[in-house]
Amino acid sequence: MANAFCFACLGRPLLLDKRQEPVAVKTRKALAVIGYLSRINNFSATRETIADLLWSGTDRTKAMQSVRQALRQLKTAESTTGFDFLRASPGLVQLDAAAFSSDLTQLMDLLNKGRASDFREAEDLWRGDFLSGFEELDPEFADWLVVERERVRSEATTAAFRHLTHINIDDGGARVEAGGRFLLKVDPALESAHRILISLYMKLGQRERAEQQYRACERELRLHLDVEPETETRALLDGEKREDTQSSAASKPSPTPRPNNAHSNSSDTIQLPEIAIYSSTLSGVELNDARDLKDEIVAGLSSFRSFDLYQAEYFDEDQAPSPTLFQGHELGSYLLKFRYNERNSKIAVQFEDRSDGRIVFNEIVDLKQWESLQAAASQTISRIHLFSTGKLRNPKNSAAFARWCQAESLLWEFDPKADRKALQLLNDLESRHDNFSMIFSAKALINMKQLIHYPIEDRELGLAMDAILSLSERAVMLDPWQPFNQRAYGWALIQSNMSDQARRAFMHAGRLNSVDPANLMSVAEGLAFSGDVELARQKADMAMELVTSVPRLFYEYYSNVFFASEDYDAAAQFVEKASYSSISGLTTRIAALLCAGKEEEAMTVLERHADNYSEIATNTGLGQQDPEEWAKKVNFFQDPKTRANYDRGVDLVKKYFFGERAAT
């Protein structure tokens, strides 16, 4: 069936027929079902998920009955619209992607084209927030809607900014002006959009209009945020430039909203390392690869959410900024340069530390030597990330983000002492910056480790699973664009037996940062536990392709992915390559060997490593735990068949370490 525009979700939601006329739907919750399905993966959800979201305070039986009534209302509306867009089975509810569209999908199509006429049409389409007025339907739905509205705004502004990084007046500034006007329709207090218009008018010689735009910026910022414009915005009118970047403020907009990291009782924010980005002229069809590599690296750095990036205008070769020392803040200030060599068709990428003028690395990238553009970019991104955050892990650095880097490094250690030290750092950080989202994700992960793996006396100081889930939810609410937050949320949902929601969280994390191998491998393991085996294999293989040297810990994650796909020989082989530092890794290996029909080898492994694992069991307090409680929590797999297969290894390891205390 031909694609049909049938749902207006921006502003007041409406179901439309083929003539774009409104179609009556009996209840707003029925419309909310469509709005929810339109924003989740595969356009599908279980009836139970919908019931929990829109009838959270109702008895489950009555909630499921309400879901059935809402679906009947939508099926009735289908006959009026003239096409079938909803599929409902006893388990799943799904929108038919071939028969369903919305004003939001139309909006994104226009923004991806990015012409002046497209921006003007997009401005007309933006009639208000996603599902405006629906936040009072249910508290659970309201929580979801807060995050989803921010996601919609971010997707729209990001798509628009892609076409506005350079002030082009070849068309009289029509496209840039239309894009700026669209951005201000979405968010009247978006200062970077005001800067784009001010810069445009100044470049066109229309100073009076530029001054009017600045006054509009002042008015909107005072009204919505109770703040004044930044000095860089005023500098656009004064003809001033920042000494540290020598760039126009109009080319500095952040493509995605920064999380609210401000302390609730203070106006200061958490500073991040600064990277100024310069490139020689990258124009012409033959330079597409060079531009694509630069864009891939900049986008990858942005996805880490660990840097303040400043995008400069493009310079001709003789206009490139001269190297100068810069006294930046203690988190570091860096310069990232790109230069294309037309003679050999290679790209030079140079990373400099501006505090001492040192060239950290200078690499010549030949894309013909790489399997993909993403793999080439990932190497540069990883080098920059590791160097800048590595310096901040020095305990002598007391800046807030440096403290986070120190705490984050401790999370990788499977050790109660390291976790206690990390908690001290996080508590201190929270006392000064209680809106920094990753604090709460990190606390959730630490408490999950304590709950599952640590001695009873340590676990009594920790949190119950409900409280851990609340911590991770708070982190996502503060910053849903941070991959670390989405992963922590996914693990908390797994432990709370909410596999569908966990899968979505892991998928979000994978989309938010697709260049960090550690993020991709963790996402792959989470998807494998959630039951999405095919996608888990894809993410894991991608992570392995991006690393230049495979960390041993990756092999344990990789083995769980292969176990979920029922390739037990590969699972046993990969986990054997991992570091022997966890009982969970041992359990995976034993389960894989048993499922591969290698019972004797499984017993040999247990006997061969008895001393090593007994020491680990003692250090982590495994022997002090309740055997059945440990067995239940160590098995993360949600698919019933995979879970049962893994339990074979759990039962053997349980008997081996708990002895007579283990149930037969």
Quick summary of this structure?
The chain is an alpha+beta fold and 664 residues long. The chain folds into 4 domains: 7-104, Arc Repressor Mutant, subunit A, CATH 1.10.10; 258-392, Rossmann fold; 397-509, Tetratricopeptide repeat domain (Serine Threonine Protein Phosphatase 5, Tetratricopeptide repeat); 514-664, Serine Threonine Protein Phosphatase 5, Tetratricopeptide repeat, CATH 1.25.40. It has helices at residues 28-37, 47-54, 60-81, 103-113, 116-125, 139-161, 174-186, 191-203, 207-224, 231-238, 288-303, 373-392, 400-411, 416-432, 438-453, 456-459, 465-478, 483-495, 499-512, 517-530, 533-546, 552-564, 568-577, 583-595, 599-608, 610-620, 627-634, 640-658; strands spanning 7-8, 14-16, 22-23, 44-46, 86-88, 92-95, 274-279, 308-311, 333-341, 346-353, 358-365.
Topology:
Layout: E1 7-8, E2 14-16, E3 22-23, H1 28-37, E4 44-46, H2 47-54, H3 60-81, E5 86-88, E6 92-95, H4 103-113, H5 116-125, H6 139-161, H7 174-186, H8 191-203, H9 207-224, H10 231-238, E7 274-279, H11 288-303, E8 308-311, E9 333-341, E10 346-353, E11 358-365, H12 373-392, H13 400-411, H14 416-432, H15 438-453, H16 456-459, H17 465-478, H18 483-495, H19 499-512, H20 517-530, H21 533-546, H22 552-564, H23 568-577, H24 583-595, H25 599-608, H26 610-620, H27 627-634, H28 640-658
Helix pairs in contact: 1-3, 2-3, 4-5, 4-6, 5-7, 6-7, 7-8, 8-9, 11-12, 13-14, 13-15, 14-15, 15-17, 15-18, 17-18, 18-19, 18-20, 19-20, 20-21, 20-22, 21-22, 22-23, 22-24, 23-24, 24-25, 24-28, 27-28
